[in-house]
Amino acid sequence: MVKVVKFGGSSLASAEQFQKVGAIIRADEARKYVVPSAPGKRNAKDTKVTDMLYECYSIAEAGKEFAGKLGKIKDRYDSIIKGLDLELSLDEEFKKIAANFKEHAGVDYAASRGEYLNGIIMANYLGYDFIDAAEVIFFDENGTFLADKTNEVLKKRLEDSECAVIPGFYGAKESGEVHTFSRGGSDITGSIVARAVRATIYENWTDVSGFLVSDPRIIDNPAVIHTITYKELRELSYMGAGVLHEDAIFPVRKEGIPINIRNTNAPQDPGTMIVESTCHQPEYTITGIAGLRDFVAVNVDKDMMNSEV
Ligand code: ASP
């Protein structure tokens, strides 16, 4: 049994959150491959490290002084390292990052450092191998994800590693230039890793106990969806029910690996299982309801369409 576990930014926003994550991973030895996001918000007014990096890099790109902004980002990581009591220093990493910012290494490189540094901390904390995503996740020069090449290289690399941390959100072009997925893309990395190791399950740990049957801003206390098919999920995410990046289902779906959405702050909750099909009569006739203003979908069903032009 092999489980791939991805933790979102709010699950890794502070040392306390890291401790919850550590307890979850240690509770099940099948949780061998870990994909972290960058530290997210610790409270409603906080800023995600990824957003801090984008801002800092735009200052660097404009040729202005960015040391203060970069220092604030380093403080976020240092407080996690200190809170976890780790013997780890990111001083050298931050020197490299500052030099690369000065040389305008690119906005994707800048944003990717959030996951990269969090991965280093996570690997140190767990005693797992650290694998830089730039060495195993590939894009072509136009930024299109290269699924087959990635799967081949990643599979080989992970065969040599019993337990590893692979940072989410980024990879590299064939030229070596770092490239990221769109925002929320660590979900995709988790799915790619799950495919490469042919995981039993892909656990996606976040800050909610799964998908809800309706929008909690409109309906009070909606129930959690226990089981949903990939197809139903596509439909719901399309309409704006965003818990999981919509491209995250493709790699695992190919291999028939279920995704389990779980809550880091309530690990006892079973969360939502995303599966190819439910073989028995579903619990409810309607799985969930989502909507988008000014959006209409028209479905046309007609028998014998294949015999017509
Ligand atoms: N850290 C990136 C973002 O904020 C990617 C992710 O969290 O999945 O979008």
Structural domain tally:
1
The distinct ligands, each listed once, are: aspartic acid
What is the CATH architecture assignment?
3-Layer(aba) Sandwich
Q: In this structure, how is the largest beta sheet organized?
A: 8 strands, mixed
Amino-to-carboxy terminus distance: 49 Å
CATH topology: Carbamate kinase
Q: Write down the Rg.
A: 20 Å
Number of DSSP helices? 9
Under CATH at level 1, the class stands as Alpha Beta
Strand order of the largest sheet: 3-5-2-1-8-10-11-9
Shape: globular
Counted beta strands: 11
Helix % is 25-40%
Name the CATH homologous superfamily. Answer: Acetylglutamate kinase-like
As a percent range, the share of strand residues is: 5-15%
Helix and strand run:
EHEHHHHEEHEEEHEEHHEE
Helix-and-strand structural type: alpha/beta
Q: Which regions are unreliable across 5 or more consecutive residues at pLDDT < 50?
A: none
